[in-house]
Prior knowledge:
The structure holds two protein chains of two kinds. By secondary structure, chain A is α/β, with parallel strands linked by helices.
Amino acid sequence: MASTSGAEVSIRDLSKSFTLGGRPLQVLRTLNLDIRAGECLVIVGASGSGKTTLLRILAGLEAADNGGVAIDGKPVDGVGAERAVIFQEPRLLPWLTVLGNVAFGLEVRGIPRRQAEERARFYIALVGLAEFADAWPRQLSGGMAQRVGIARALTVQPEILLLDEPLGALDAMTKIGMQEELARIWSEENVTMVMVTHDLEEAIYLADRVLILPKEKGGAARLVDVDLPRPRDRSESRFVSYRQELLREFGLH
Amino acid sequence: MSLQHIEEPVILGDGRLGTDILRLARAASVRLLSRYGILIAFLALWQVSSSAGWVNAAVLPPIDMIVAALWKGLAGGTLLGDIAISLQRSGIAFVAAVVVAIPLGLFMGQVRSVETALDPILQVFRQTSALALYPVFILLLGLGEASKVFVIFWATLFPLLLNTISGVKEVDPKLLEMARVYGATRLTVFRRVVLPGAVPSIFVGLRLSATTALLLLIASEMIGANKGIGFQVMNAQYNFQIPLMFAAIVILAGLGLIANQALVSLQRRLCRWSQPIN
Lengths: 253, 278
């Protein structure tokens, strides 16, 4: 049930600022970037660098001040069926079972319930929760709930999967398991994946390219190609040197 | 990876059925006693102090006399008519409050400008005691059924309305955003996210309103009525039929318990997803 090969995204002269305490705060400055179809791009940056804002603009939840985003050549205006978002919190509807939550995205789009649930079951199994299809969200652990959120996003078979620190709230052990799971899902589903994280190891483990957003005024965004075979080995020397390279970017080493 | 186990399983042993049944019976009686022990003790104390003459039995008649009066009133049919008319008054008012308050509350909770415009007058109405307004309603609607139903309606309207509004407003905006990301229309967001999210709060309002309905029922029946449980309480007292008065009070308490239990069961059925109530 693999979807299409993913869409490409072009970001042109993108700027965004907020007003904070009466003062304008520029978070994105004329950003230009092409995201390739089917690639996994991971965005890192210090807090306040605008990484979540960038993701929300890609999702269509926020509008840019200047410039814009196009997906396969079509300008983005608001949310769209070719995109799905995985948030930091699972955001499950507590009154729906796991099955109901995963089918929600399809049902909202007018797919008949039987059909929606059939496809939902496939993705529930894909994230390893087949036995829990009839459980209520309150019965799930944090990691399980986030998997349900992931399955819900996959069920609508998006061409672009946007992930906003999806593993940020999980404990270290669960997190590593989920990173492996995301890597597997990405390779199986052939979807363009754009993910925000503050975990550099996670970025190197998953990314084809890492986008580093500058914090200071006038700084430029930087792209790092992660040229490592998959599945990746965190203890390998080249993995470690990528990690050091990224740390240097943040002035830490 | 935790599925909650709400009830502990009862494991029956092998072959020693007799002792098992004894143990289960003991466990059941302990549970019964820990829940109803104080209520039973209260009734026993009442019965003993009244029949032993510690208190004036004419004012606090023993339990068995109250039960006898209750039975006579129910079997003889005199109290049945009162129950019917009281249920009709509070029922019509309660249903009217539900029909008005829930749709209005859902609307007000969704549309900020409407809520802003209506909130001050609602606060004033809510803080004005319905009992104080009862004479006004009598002037406007006469001393008949209309003013009684209306005063109950008035008092039950506000708890339900305000709880519905806050239920809608307190729906997690993150869930609304999630629904939006999947392309949900406003109507779908309302139907699939706002409404189910507001249900627990609406039930809080329904239970408060049911209690208020019975409270106002009695008050309204004490003025200018010739039938109804509230009337019966007053009337029995005038005629010094004290056991009958208590029988009417017992019926009232019973109606309150039944109404609350019915709403709790309905909520359990509708909200199987949420934590068990109480």
